[in-house]
Amino acid sequence: MKKILLSLVFITTIITSGFSQASRLWATYYGGADWEEGTSVATDRLGNVYVTGWTYSTTGIASGGFQNTFGGGVDAFLVKFDASGNRLWATYYGGSGNEEGYDVTTDTAGNVYLCGYTTSSTGIASGGFQNTYGGGTSDGFLIKFNASGGRIWGTYYGGTGEDVSQGVTIDKAGNILLVGDTRSTTNIASGGFQNSPGGGGLHDAYLVKFNSAGARTWSTYYGGPQMIRDMVLLPTRVEIFLFQESAEAQRVSLPEDFKVLSEE
Question: 184 and 57, same structural domain?
Answer without folding.
Answer: no
